[in-house]
Amino acid sequence: MLRIDIITIFPEFFRDVIDFGIVKRARAAGIVEITAHDLRGWTTDKHHIVDDRPFGGGDGMVLKPEPIFAGVEALTGAGRREDLPPQTRVVLLSPQGRVLTQAVARELAQPESQVVLLCGRYEGVDERVVEALVTDEISIGDYVLSGGEAAALVLTDAIVRLLPGALGSETSAVFESFSESLLDCPHYTRPPEFRGMRVPDVLLSGNHAEIERWRKDAALLKTRRNRPDLLK
Ligand code: 9D3
Q1: What is the mean pLDDT of residues 31-51?
Q2: 94 Cα to the center of ligand 1, angstroms
Q3: Is any ligand 1 atom within 6 A of the Cβ of residue 139?
Q4: How many Å lie between the centroid of ligand 1 and the Cα of residue 183?
Q5: How confident is the model at residue 169 (pLDDT cuts 50, 70, 90)?
């Protein structure tokens, strides 16, 4: 079983979302265990303070190192990267990370392992967390989020659906490699005409060779229009 432990100042952000669809099924099947932990639970001061002002000045606040180190130590048994068990990854979701791809998700989707997700907030996280604790610093793309929580949900979903047994029969290595090289072709279902819009005749023809050709063509056209970078 893969264990995903999420460290966040907003644990409630996760509690409902992980209870739907593929992730819910995978949890019920014992394929993955997902727990959201409140970072404040590892503070030792009366007011449960998790952030402080940046050295050197500037706007915003920075997440303090102490509760993060304490949390990772409590969850993994190790307070620094060198001491982590071999199958344990500590992932910081941050705008400064390498960008999440299907290959990164596949790296993290190991059945007998532990992934700790650290969700940054405010201006960021004390860099000593990155220097001494984090094994992977990951961004989900070039746009600005309010914090790491939404990114942690994206990463969790991408990982869980790759675990053996999490999906039905629709998964296969062939399908996945295709999905990374070209966008999917358009899909249609009934009715054959809706508000004057017709489903392409070829899809109703029953000619499977022609349908295959149409789908390859349509996928190529869509990729050229929406993701020309995939064709280079
Ligand atoms: C002023 C510089 N900004 C850094 C690029 C400030 C800043 C923006 C957003 C600091 C923190 C954040 C919060 N974002 C995340 O924690 C985050 C994130 C993201 O914003 N985009 C894509 N992936 C991720 S993963 C975590």
Answers
A1: 98
A2: 6
A3: yes
A4: 27
A5: low
| Buried/exposed 136-163: b ≥16 CB within 10 Å, e otherwise | bbbbbeeeeeebbbebbbbbbbbbbbbb
Backbone phi, psi, residue 139, to 5°:
-110, 155
> 2-160 maps to which CATH number?
3.40.1280.10
Give me the phi and psi of 45, to 5 degrees please: -90, 160
Q: How far apart are CA 14 and CA 160, in angstroms?
A: 14
Nearest-angstrom CA–CA distance, 225 and 96: 29
Cα–Cα dist 62/124, whole Å: 5
Instruction: Output the pLDDT for position 221.
Output: 98
State whether the beta carbon of 141 lies less than 6 angstroms from ligand 1: yes
Q: Which atom of ligand 1 is nearest to the CA of 145?
A: 20
- Residue with CA nearest ligand 1 atom 6: 123
Single pTM value for the model? 0.95
Mutate to test the pocket of ligand 1, among 13, 94, 125, 155 (most ligand atoms within 8 A of CB): 94
174-184 residue pLDDT tens = 556 555 689 99
- Residue 147 Cβ < 6 Å to ligand 1: yes
The response to whether residue 71 sits with its C-beta less than 6 Å from ligand 1 reads no
Class of domain 175-232 as given by CATH: mainly alpha
pLDDT tens digit sequence for 63-80: 999 999 999 999 999 999
Residues of the chain with CATH 3.40.1280.10: 2-160
Which residue's CA is the closest to the ligand 1 atom numbered 13?
Answer: 147
89-143 pLDDT, tens digit each: 999 999 999 999 999 999 999 999 999 999 998 899 999 999 999 999 999 999 9
- In the chain, list all ranges with CATH 1.10.1270.20: 175-232
